[in-house]
Amino acid sequence: MPQPLTLLALGDSLTEGYGLESDAAFPAALERLLRAAGYDATVINLGLSGDTTAGGMRRLRAWLARNPGFGTSDESGESAAPPCLAIVELGANDGFMGLDPEDMEENLAAILTLMAERRVPTLLAGFKAEFADDPDYAEAYDALFPRLAARFGVPLWPYVLDGIWGVPDRTLWDGLHPNAAGAERMAQAALPYVLDMIGEAGADGGSQAGPTP
Hints:
Layout: E1 4-11, H1 13-16, H2 26-36, E2 40-47, H3 53-66, E3 84-89, H4 92-96, H5 101-117, E4 122-125, H6 135-152, E5 156-157, H7 180-204
Parallel strand pairs: 1-2, 1-3, 3-4, 4-5
Helix pairs in contact: 2-7, 3-5, 5-6
């Protein structure tokens, strides 16, 4: 019988499923794919429309305080049962609001630190500043995701809306937010990264590298 596993999906409207029923949102689609692959997976939807990296950091801290068993169960480094993983999908709204990429990077680093402290394998979902009319801002924004992935030793999903943004068959009326087909595409894109994390967690007890000084 497959071992249960829990995956926390922390994000904004792209994770929450803006304009969609909950069972059509990205986390539900990913859970179905994982179950079809033979895993007894539960994907928790911790998405909130309009949220920023700062808001996501605060919400994660509050959620972890309410769920102290998520991640490492004790100081010995033993993995929690069931195994825990995470996806961090935040930053789009920071960009749309023109917030400082340095602040955004600091917030995401704090989130990844919280996950590393709990030895939770984490997938960092990236975004691209295609919306920006300032090339310097776009360059700083786009660079922070791979830099954080390298610093924390986590996999990077380079662009969550690849093949979705501006594609009528995969978006709502605004051409940005995924419809059910777009959420399914997001789940299919995330699946290989998640399967790799599951395999690595099984091999090394769920350890995750901490930040590189």
